[in-house]
Amino acid sequence: MKALAGPAHDRGITTLTLDSPANRNALSAALVGELTAALDTCAADDTVRAVVLTHTGNTFCAGADLTAPPDPAAFVALMRRIVALPKPVVARVTGHVRAGGLGLLGACDISAAGPDASFALTESRLGLAPAVISMPLLPRLDPRAAARYYLTGERFDATEASRIGLITLAAGPTGPAEDTEDAEDIDKALAPVLDGLRKASPQGLAASKKLVTATVLSNFDQHAEDLIARSAALFASAEAREGMTAFLERRDPAWVL
Q1: Which of 19, 51, 144, 240 is 20 to 30 Å apart from 45, CA to CA?
Q2: Cβ of 63: how many Cβ atoms within 10 Å?
Q3: Domain that residue 37 falls in
């Protein structure tokens, strides 16, 4: 079964939809491969002005699929592909984002989240660390906020995500909302963004994106190899095995006080 729905096209905007409800759109090898291939197709298509990345269900991305995690190098290549794509990538989030899912957001050029969205860097609670996703995240995040949420794994909402630089804008009122209202809020907020992208020239978009992504791409070029090795070592450790097993068994890991 495919983990990615779409693409859908509307006046130069191609929408790719994460659609793997069985694992809450977790980063499986299948999803990483399908999304990378779809982005390559968009890059080669002159009719595509920009890409919107969205999701089905109440979770944008639950992070790595702990039952079958992707090759860290493949996930790094996916994030770098989003950053280096000569066309803007816009994230549309109406649900939860965890761990590696925040790496996808950090790689996107523009991101909007609705009032039902929530975010957490949960790696430290599993015996892991936000290693490879640091490459797109740390250049964008407020340093004090990054330290807090990297270390504690606390959950935060779209308003806070916007304040610390994780997302571009928080759409709609705070508090619970119906799914249809949440979608309407975020689509209304994104309308002028997508309209602006449609008015820009392909050359202008590509050249402008190069300017704003230079620091992030430099991070990938300098640190990818080291962070992939660190990530692999953490995943292979006994402490991480306990953390991931406890998570899957819905219990506290051994180190919880």
Answers
A1: 19
A2: 27
A3: 1-175+202-257
Counting the structural domains of the chain, the total is: 1
Give the HSE-up count for residue 171: Cα atoms under 13 Å, Cβ half-sphere.
Answer: 25
Question: Is residue 79 exposed (0-12), middle (13-18) or buried (19+ Cβ within 10 Å)?
Answer: buried
Specify the amino acid at residue 170.
A
What CATH number is attached to the domain comprising 110? 3.90.226.10
Residues 37-80: tens digit of each pLDDT? 999 999 999 999 999 999 999 999 999 998 888 899 999 999 99
Is 136 in contact with 107 (CB distance < 8 Å)? Answer: yes
Chain segment 163-202, per-residue pLDDT in tens: 999 999 999 764 444 444 567 889 999 999 999 999 999 9
Return phi, psi of residue 169, to 5°.
Answer: -155, 145
Residue 215: inside a domain, yes or no? yes
